[in-house]
Amino acid sequence: MKTLEPVNAKARVLVVDDEKNIVTVLKAILEKREFEVDGFSSARDALDSLRKNHYDAAVTDLYMPEVDGMAFLAESRRLYPSLPVVMITAFGTVDSAVDAIKKGAFDYVTKPFEQSEIVQVVQKAVNTSRLSRLDVEPAQEAIENVVPPILRGESPAARALRDSIARVAPTPSVVLLLGETGTGKEVVAEEIHRKSDRAWQDLVRVNCAAVAGISVEQEIFGGTKPGRIELAHKGTLFLDEISELPADAQGRLLEFLETGQVRHPLTGDGNRFDVRVVVGTRKDLQKAVKDGAFREDLWYRLNVVPIGLAPLRERKEDMPAIVDGVIHRLNTRLNKAVTGVDAACMELLRSLPWPGNFRQLENTLERMVVMAGETLLVPRHVPDDARQEHPEDLSNFREIVRRQTHSLERELIERALEELDGNVTRTAEYLGISRKGLQLKMKELGIKRDGETI
Fold it and tell me: How far apart are CA 263 and CA 247, in angstroms?
């Protein structure tokens, strides 16, 4: 089995710039970080080396005599399509660098650049290159750690959600995520992106409800600065709360979905972008269409692959797996060592309605993990405000504890009886109670001995 090489373990990088001093500076910066660097002041010489040697990444100036950066990019992609190429451009020529990214460049850096900036970009390029070459089966433990908590569990809803993600992720289809607040629409969008062939590009997010009026239109389509669609080129765009999109923006989004182009509202000039679109909503879009608040033609374009996300109250059987996943992540992030929740606490968590769904559960568990002095969470660690969402459960709390206590008592007594061949006297001595007390407890719990009910 191959293993992932350390990112800086002599990763080999090709650098080309017609200014020899820039090549010297880049070599010094990268070699200090333990990259192996081959530097050239001629793109032709660099391409000759590329044909003969293996590289993890390439860095090239955009404007050079004879063979410029765009020509170098085109030839390198022809030779090695998966080789990440980082473009270096002077201030004021960013548009050309953006055009290079549209044509397959990995990223760009503007001159003058900070050392940390170029190192970070090259390191990311090398990491991407090496990951793309891996052909391994991840360990089960690693898989478990990667799976988001809301996707864990074996309920029909959990299995259906995982299956839908697996089926839709490799396709370019528009996905519509439907679910209440806090059901994890953004997490599902991230998982779709992560499992797609666009995973090495950006997932760009826009909450349409968080930006008002004309601002959200400029945010998505651009104005004085690039819009989110342009930033998501070759990647994925997630538009949450799509029902809040203003009418004009709805029309422009429809045009983009149909043509792949974004037109300037004044000049009419169009730019084409390759973007996978995922949208989310907590509202009924069909009702919004009937009410005249949402375009019917846009609704049809978005409703290609609808995926419904069940609320937490409908996934009670998944609660142990979800809670375990959340606590694992919290331990890592908060440097804690909580082992889990006890049976009574789990029963209480299951009984609550969680109107805020997974988001509310995660926030509640974080507070419990932070404030608990023990490694095992118990019912008293559940915050009052979480319980107040479901006041009838407070009145039933003693009953919940009683049932769990009886369950534990039954298990303990039955195990002791089995180990001591059903001898009540010896079992009572082992448990530290009187024979009469054990008989009464066995009768209360309905424990049978020799085929009879005690």
Answer: 16
